[in-house]
Design goal:
Length: 262
């Protein structure tokens, strides 16, 4: 993982250079730094920010300009999904221009098609086959994890390639900040007894737990025979300078995480 800082524009990106990513695959996550969005979609200092989400109340013109700021780092055209916390993964090659798609993951085996998801605490998961022939971007909040969005995406990727798949976990809310109720722990525990280990009781509040979304996603990936897993070193909630956080701020922007075959 490397931070890319543009001193002229203020743009700050995370380059996802995980060790098992093939050389022809390129992947990034944006931060809140750079862009033209005004408060509450700006940066931590009250200056303009890089909000990538059209659905959060920000000016559409600002979002369009923000997305254009990234054109040097992602091939066009780019399809942004209408994310619904489900388990649908779509093949970008099957979509038509300007089509509105309700889905939480996208994949492709074609070069220069950008798979992208938006998040502001949920986990952005980027996947790549080690032969460089198929990539995917997954919006993996806790509801999507329960609903099987990772399993659904991997199943369709494996119809494109038989090669091993590696994963990079982008910026999400960290295990010391993601408080959930006992019902969430119970839902995951019913899916797999291993998931219970990713919930630590909040000693200050009865019936509340701190959930490790990175650990939950890792368990799902390993159960699906994905062993090459990187990333997961972020916390959108506590790192206010770099990241938007819905849990922290309520009304806020969204970051993008994207991947493509070069």
């Amino acid at each position: 993982m490397a931070l890319i800082r543009d001193s002229d524009t203020g743009l700050v990106l995370i380059q996802a250079d995980w060790p098992d990513c093939p050389a022809n695959v390129h992947a990034y996550s944006s931060t809140r730094m750079g862009g033209v969005s005004l408060a509450p979609y700006g940066d931590v200092n009250g200056d303009a920010g890089l909000n990538m989400g059209e659905h959060v109340g920000d000016s559409r013109d600002a979002v369009r300009i923000n997305r254009d700021c990234l054109l040097d780092y992602m091939p066009k055209p780019v399809t942004f999904l209408s994310q619904i916390h489900g388990n649908i993964a779509v093949d970008l090659a099957s979509l038509v221009a300007d089509q509105i798609i309700e889905a939480d993951a996208c994949f492709t085996s074609l070069p220069n098609l950008t798979c992208v998801v938006l998040t502001a605490d949920c986990l952005p998961l980027l996947l790549a086959s080690v032969d460089g022939k198929c990539v995917a971007a997954v919006h993996a909040g806790w509801r999507g994890l329960v609903n099987g969005v990772i399993e659904s995406t991997l199943k369709q990727m494996r119809q494109k390639t038989q090669a091993e798949i590696s994963a990079w976990m982008g910026p999400a809310i960290g295990p010391n900040a993601f408080e959930v109720g006992s019902e969430v722990r119970e839902i995951f525990s019913r899916k797999s007894h291993k998931h219970a280990l990713n919930f630590i009781p909040n000693k200050q509040v009865e019936g509340k737990f701190f959930a490790n979304i990175y650990g939950l996603a890792s368990d799902v990936l390993k159960a699906c025979d994905v062993q090459k897993i990187s990333g997961g070193n972020f916390c959108t909630y506590t790192d206010e300078e770099l990241f938007y956080s819905y849990r922290r701020d309520g009304v806020t922007g969204r970051m993008a995480s994207w991947i493509w075959i070069g």
